[in-house]
Amino acid sequence: MIESAGYKPASLHEAGLVIFNTCSVRQMAEDRAQGQIHEAKKRGQKTIVTGCLKNQPSFQKKQTEVDLFIDIEEIAKLPEN
Length: 81
Prior knowledge:
By secondary structure, the chain is α/β, with parallel strands linked by helices. The longest helix is centred in the middle third of the chain and has 16 residues, at 27-42. It has helices spanning 27-42, 57-62, and strands at 17-22, 46-51, 68-69.
């Protein structure tokens, strides 16, 4: 779907856009996601967060660097955003 919208695959460090499909089952997973989002923003990448952590207001409040929070069910509409 993303490729058909004109995006091309790239390595994590070369991508202009990074989509994080997150999990909140363990604190370690949340901490890792926060660190990876921060690193992506330092590289100047746009960031999108979906998955479990997207639904946690406390996570959203901490992640002021995230460009877009989107429900996983809405990811197919991403090119429209």
